Amino acid sequence: MHALWVWAHPHASSLNGRLREVGVSALGAAGWSVDEIDLYREGFNPLLVGRGEADVRRHQDRLRRADLLVVQFPLWWYSVPAILKGWIDRVFESGFAFDVPDPETGKPLKYGRGGLVGKRALTVVTAGDRAATLGPRGISGDIEDVLWPLLHGTFWYTGMDPLRPHLITAADDLDAQATARTEADLRLRLEGVMTEPRIDYLPMSEAHYDHTIRLHDSVAPGDDGLSAHREGGSGPNT
Prior knowledge:
Blueprint: E1 2-7, H1 15-29, E2 33-38, H2 54-64, E3 68-74, H3 82-91, E4 120-126, H4 143-146, H5 148-156, E5 161-162, E6 166-168, H6 176-191
Parallel strand pairs: 1-2, 1-3, 3-4, 4-5, 4-6
């Protein structure tokens, strides 16, 4: 198996840097080959000005080879760092990740189907907030809802299987013991990364959505939130 580990943090000596080392080492010990993209150290240009540029094609080739995409970043203003957003904007191009036509109908494949189908996607996320604030009823919102644009609107949209975010909270306050536990948790998570169930988003099919791509009234009746777009209308907290 082959993994592409993309990470976005300005400081290699940070907790993020340590977790990247632990994660890449754990995959290697399990027999994986791992390709790393360090966006800051590589000086990746996040500005989208054209299509089909040479550096973008190289990154697409690296993503194409991967069975697993790991995207690691600190949660900044409830989203990804700008350099990572730019990587997605540039690399996930039309014709590569999306706007890939269905050979039977000619219509673009999306939401469970697409140019990146067959790959799994795991986010490794650090946050300064305490765990409760990014969990059920937390003031920041559940992490799966906070990252909806990435998990559903990017990974699932392009056909990848999005996995539950691997969230490290109170990241600024971890002592040596807590850091050791955090490292062990990441190793354990990666051991089962190809067998754990994906987030159970609904595919875009006539069984679930009408011609306006709105859920049929019979699907998750009474649920108008993001959880309605999951199997059985079950959200991350149910």
